[in-house]
Specification:
2 copies of one chain form a homodimer.
Chain A: E1 6-11, H1 20-32, E2 36-42, H2 44-51, E3 61-65, H3 76-82, H4 87-96, E4 102-105, H5 109-120, E5 130-131, E6 134-137, E7 140-145, H6 155-171, E8 179-183, H7 194-205, E9 210-215, E10 227-229, H8 232-257, H9 261-278, E11 289-292, E12 297-300, H10 307-323, H11 325-334
Parallel strand pairs in A: 1-2, 1-4, 2-3, 4-12, 7-10, 8-9, 8-10
Antiparallel strand pairs in A: 5-11, 6-7, 11-12
Chain lengths: 339, 339
């Protein structure tokens, strides 16, 4: 892997400020990482116009024309089915055909999840791929799995999420024997809705993960477990509560410091310390999230990402490919041993 | 109502620091509010010992002996059934028999919810009572309903939660024509799990509430709706994410300000501004949460509450009784018009 370039199929039209941000991010990535080659999909003239604003290694950013764009608000299944010549769908097909090693988009999450499953395809033995972002905690980061669009999950799927999340934490994030916890409304085994009640004993019997029991949502940000398992509706609520409460808190803090001349004077002194102290607790730093369980690397980064975040996400793609996570998952689930 | 005292059945043994905190809180409440009379239940000697440490109006704190205590970890249904002479169950029976106007406990949430339903009973037409705390937002507060133990709710129940939450917001919190939103993983009507997909059209048809559609969890703390509707599992996750993320943020901020002599100097200046700016964003200020839909006022305050919080919760009980919320709900649901 390290001898040849890592080829990334990159949806050039996805994200709030595409294609200017996607192109600038791609340029920054090939400049800073000599190991990657980017196949950027999208409206050719627009991509070329943006590219013309930059100096870059022309051998490592290849424009792949695509005439359509999938919008965030479009129903994912319909969009993936109808817009075969979209930047998103074309990029996914490049991974499916083995022309690229990884896929990245800052566009529609739903279309990436649906397309990842039906175009790139599931690893044999995986019931449902799961979106697994890392979230910041007081101790570092945790993996939150599933944050995808697969709502109404079954207990057997949650068990697979736990196993995939654990393998991801260990093999990609480098956590030794990662602790795995199930999101519930109390610490006791008998608590919860029917899904978590059914899942708990299955996780307890699972010999290839370090299951430590239930976790209450209040303990997630403290870093009480390395892998946080839940179905996607709950995962989405957790992820967005992080965003919402953190930005509310940040705004209140800013307003407090800007109140009057005295507070502004104090703010001058404390600002660098506060910035440094809470910088690890912003979501953007953690970049792209993998859709675990696909027969190829499918990565999603957030729609409002800036140039640096696009650059980081592209470099992350190469790191993930080199970690061999897809091959590892094929071994983990291919033998169908579900314990 | 205002001519006679409001009688509160208060679980003297509930909460982390009972009975010292419960007794001190009761003493503070009768001192500061001449309109209430507290019937405090619990182990007689312990209550009298604590009471002996205070000066108070003896006519307005009445000890009601109860020989048992329900612990937080006990399975609620079993505990309520078996411990008939517990402080919690006895207090609930006083409301059921009309000897008291309101119930308050800082003890087991589960036992209060179960006991509220089976002892005090549901208002005719209410499928399930719902626990409805207020949560702080950038604009003030919102009602979060349901945060109870009623997981695996049905769509018809969520519609009732919306109507009860709206009536509570309008009649008790004084919000004119409160906006009601359904927690979902996207803003579009077609998003979500099967429960919210089924609930959305029912809420749209509901003529007695101001339904504004879906709300994503990230917009809750900004104050995007007055009433936030969800089933209890999600409600619990939201409430506890609030707690967790806010306290993590607070700890990081504190550590940043205490980093060295310079940061400490700045902290001296900004501390009062920060304290003032974020004080409204702590959960404890908002006191007790009502279990809406019971045939009598059932209130739960959090286990770690201090003397001031107990005092505030007891005074809140009187205010809620005087608002006539129970009678209002009997009218709202009694006619069985579920539109």
């Amino acid at each position: 892997m390290s001898e040849r370039l890592c080829r990334i199929a990159f949806d050039g039209m996805g994200g709030d400020d595409a294609p200017s941000v996607t192109v600038a991010g791609a340029v920054a990535a090939v400049r800073d990482d000599k190991g990657i080659e980017i196949h950027i999909t999208g409206i050719e003239e627009k991509l070329r116009e943006e590219l013309s604003k930059h100096e870059y290694d022309r051998d490592r950013i290849i424009v792949v024309p695509a005439s359509e764009v999938i919008e965030t608000a479009e129903p994912p299944v319909v969009a993936v089915h109808n817009k075969k010549d979209s930047s998103l769908v074309k990029a996914l097909y490049m991974v499916k055909r083995g022309e690229c090693d990884a896929y990245l988009s800052a566009g529609s999450t739903g279309a990436t999840l649906v397309g990842g499953q039906i175009i790139v395809g599931r690893i044999a033995g995986v019931e449902r791929p799961a979106l697994a972002p890392v979230i910041p905690t007081e101790k570092g980061v945790s993996v939150l799995i599933d944050c995808g669009a697969n709502v109404d999950a079954r207990a057997s799927q949650l068990v697979q999420f736990a196993r995939m999340g654990s393998a991801y934490s260990e093999n990609v994030l480098g956590v030794k024997d990662p602790t795995v916890a199930l999101v519930n409304i109390g610490a006791e085994e008998e608590k919860g809705n029917s899904l978590v009640k059914e899942t708990y004993p299955l996780l307890k019997e699972c010999r290839d993960i370090n299951f430590i029991g239930n976790i209450e949502a209040r303990d997630i940000s403290a870093g009480a477990a390395d892998v946080i398992v839940c179905e996607a509706f709950t995962g989405n609520v957790i992820l967005k509560m992080y965003e919402g409460v953190a930005s509310t808190f940040y705004r209140l803090l800013k307003n407090a410091l800007m109140k009057n001349t005295v507070s502004k004077l104090g703010a001058l002194i404390v600002k660098p310390y506060i910035k440094d102290g809470i910088k690890d607790f912003t979501m953007s730093k953690y970049g792209a999230a993998p859709l675990l369980g696909c027969r190829g690397l499918v990565m999603k980064t957030h729609g409002s990402c800036d140039v640096t975040e696009v650059r980081n996400s592209l470099i992350q793609c190469r790191e993930f490919v080199e970690s061999g996570i897809t091959e590892r998952f094929e071994k983990l689930f291919g033998d169908k041993s579900e314990d």
